[in-house]
Amino acid sequence: MAVNLQPTYVTTQPVALPGMPATMHGWDADSFIVDKVAVNKIGFGVAVSLKVGTDPLSVVIGGTAALFRGVTYRDITQPPRTPEGYAAGENIGVMSRGDIWVQLGATAGGVNPGDAVKFVTATGVFDSAGTITIVNAHWMRGAAASGLALLRLYSPAA
After folding, report:
1. Which 3 state secondary structure label does DSSP give 109?
2. 99: closest CA among 143, 48, 45, 33?
3. CB 80 within 8 A of CB 87
4. Which of 4, 50, 137, 144 is found 20 to 30 A from 56 (Cα to Cα)?
5. In angstroms, rounded to a whole number, what is the distance separating the alpha carbons of residues 60 and 39?
């Protein structure tokens, strides 16, 4: 008798996941290291900034507008050790230009095309109530609170 190795399955794939590149429309990404001191883990589809100090290769969650470097993406060629994101000390892909899916925060309303792109300093989560505004970005597709929205990034000032 055959053993069923996959007794349940979904009939459709999700439209997108947080941190998933949405299109191949001109995109750029850089590699950084997840900061070992300030961060335990960085999830997918969140804003990251350079670590304040002397290490130009380390990034932390959220951060400041001046040090913002982009949004973490799911790199399928380098799977993280945890399914929720990249652990401290690991290499992390950060998209600085292109279209990427992000999961919105639940603390405020959703976003619509034309709304300011903001993220929460402490968590890096995109939210209409965020305190940091990214001027070189706009929403391609909006979503309700906690939903998946499509974000277009233009290279941040470096």
Report:
1. coil
2. 45
3. yes
4. 137
5. 6
Residue-wise pLDDT tens digits, 125-135:
999 989 999 98
| Residue 85 burial by Cβ neighbours in a 10 Å radius (0-12, 13-18, 19+) | buried
* CB of 18 closer than 8 Å to CB of 43: yes
| Rg of the Cα atoms in the chain | 16
Token pair listed for 158: 């470096």
Round to whole Å and give the CA distance between 14 and 107: 24
pLDDT tens for 9-56 read: 777 877 888 999 998 888 899 999 998 876 678 999 999 999 877 677
C-alpha 98: how far from chain center: 12
